Amino acid sequence: MQVTSLLSREDDEHDHHDHDHDHDHDYDHDHKHDESCASCGHDHSHATLPLAQTLIGLIFVLNSFAVDALFSSGAKAVADASAMIGAIILGYPIIWTAMVDLRRGLLTTNELVAMAVLASFGSAHYQEAGVVAFFMLLGQIIETRTAEGARASIESLIKLTPVKARRITKEGEEEVPTKLLAVGDVIRVRPGDNVAADGIILSGQGSFNQANITGESLPVDKKPGDEVFAGTQNLTGVLEIRVSRAGEDTTLGKVRELILAAEKTKLPIMRIIDQYMGFYTPLVLVIGALVWAFTNDLSRVIAVFIVACPCAFILATPTAMVAALSAAARLGILIKNVGDIELAAKINAFVFDKTGTLTTGKLAVSRLAPADGVTPAELLRITASAEKYSNHPTAKALANLAGEAGVPLIEPKDFSETAGRGISAQVDGAKIIVGRAQWLKDHGVTEDFMKSVDLNETEGFSLIFVARNGKCIGWVGLQDQTRPEAREALAELKVCGARRIAMISGDRQPVASRVAREIGCEEVIGECLPQNKVEFVRQMKSKGYRVAVVGDGVNDAPALAAGDLGIAMGAAGSEVAIHSATIALMNNDLRRLPFLVKLSRQTRAVINQNFMIGISFVIGGLLLAALKYISPIVAAMLHVVGSLIVVFNSARLVRQGEELDPHVVVVENNTPSKPSTPVAAITPKLA
């Protein structure tokens, strides 16, 4: 059971220390799973016992049953010999494991299994010994393969970096191993290729599938100047990319490191189990001795030893944890410590940063107000055309809206920009002035164009005015847009049991209040310095709340560290964000937060179910074996069945979160997805 070895024990040979929230992981990436699990009774050096060897042993055992059934009693010696050979083949790895444990000074449930096999063998019940050994190995193989499958579902998300890259040199294009790439190299990525390293696009445009990094199922269009991540797939276009991070320094490399490190951490319940497993085997030996003393029946003692192996109980937590980690990683949620999965279920208060968390952190057009005789489309076309060569966020917001609305731009002439004030240019033969009110007045616009303004700039709106040939033709309102899913996400958190949701921001109080109204947040504090945010979180914790702090991971690091749970938004490509929080969301979809709470509670429920299943099989099996209602062979079968039920019960968690796939949402709701706010608000007017 490699899940157990990964999550439920500390191996002295590999010096795997228990980590709580210090995140100082020392994970060996070349770690081989050749450990023995002191608590489950299986040695993982034999967990991968060749199936051929297991089948050969089984054939000998089955052959003995066939000889007994088909021939007279004179063939009993042949049947016994066949069963003996099969029992030796199947029992050898079990007995060898127990001997290795004893030589290391360990008393584990390995010895219970070995004693059961040896007792059957020593009492000349070779068929029984062979069948018992087979079922114990079968349970071990199934558990190991299932655990490896769960682990592989995580590895499949993170083993996507190609081994080769096309590096561009003075001599032309050359194919080199990815590990030889260095910062500053230029690589070429063709359609269908996976990106070999993090970098910035120098030339070309493409659509990228970056679900493995951000959890977004829809492709993202990229252009020169945009960042791309290692392991994401280029769907269209040929691009040249300058490498900014390579090897293990890439976002994907850090994701891989954190996911694998999370597998090494433990829940508090697993630490308790580790402490008491040392007493378990002696207790079972005492029970076996009592059964022998009262019944003098070796068969009952053998059955007791077999059913006492608590594999289903030990698998309860690790299998659920790996399944939950897999579901979270699929949606771009990095959980650094499995204990945080349990903690998320107890969170009852959320503290949000505003900029970049509840808002996009980028200017977007929220209002087009054309003057009489001017259409919204005309105002947008003239303004965006005049701003075409500006790098100001206002110019980018106008260009984005024009592109989304399908408004063609005109090439400006005589472009001139004065930093902080505005621009002037010739568009379609007319003199265009775009900027603040004073900028238009300085250029001779004398009319009272301020009377048409009905927005309050103190609430975070930015206004620019547009004049054509000395006459104002309208104004444009811009603001830092709230995320479209923010209101829905906060409402879901309340449904999930969040008793207090607050937004704290360094922005002006009117701006923070406006955003809070838009997203339905009742508690809002503006004009907060970083130290004020930390103090607010501490005060909330002092009142008994379990607090999760959600921020962008850059300027919110102190507050993230102050909360019971720190969640960094938009961590893709941000080393600070990945390392400053206990949980990192690789994209900016706030709906991941209520999903995380639900996943935590579902995981806890599954673990409790698994514990009940495991305990029921152990206690029930001990009673049935002591009263001789079951034979050693049936006991071995029950051992396998209990483990399988636990594994498959945990596997249900892997599919959690599929409703966050936009394609699924559209099909289920039978409605198109909601467009972004600027397009929804303005596009009808452009028509």
Fold and architecture overview:
The protein is α+β, with helices and mostly antiparallel strands. The relative contact order is 0.11. Helix 3 (76-103) crosses helix 5 and helix 13 (376-386) packs across helix 14. Strand 23, helix 20 (575-580) and strand 24 form a beta-alpha-beta unit. The strands form 5 sheets. It has a 7-stranded mixed sheet. The protein has a 6-stranded antiparallel sheet with strand order 4-3-5-11-6-9, with no helix packed on it. The radius of gyration is 33 Å and the shape is elongated. The protein has 4 domains: 2-156 and 257-328 and 605-653, no CATH class; 164-249, Calcium-transporting ATPase, cytoplasmic transduction domain A (Distorted Sandwich), CATH 2.70.150; 329-359 and 483-597, Rossmann fold, CATH 3.40.50; 363-481, Calcium-transporting ATPase, cytoplasmic domain N (3-Layer(aba) Sandwich). Helix content is 49%, strand content 18%. The protein contains 24 helices and 24 strands.
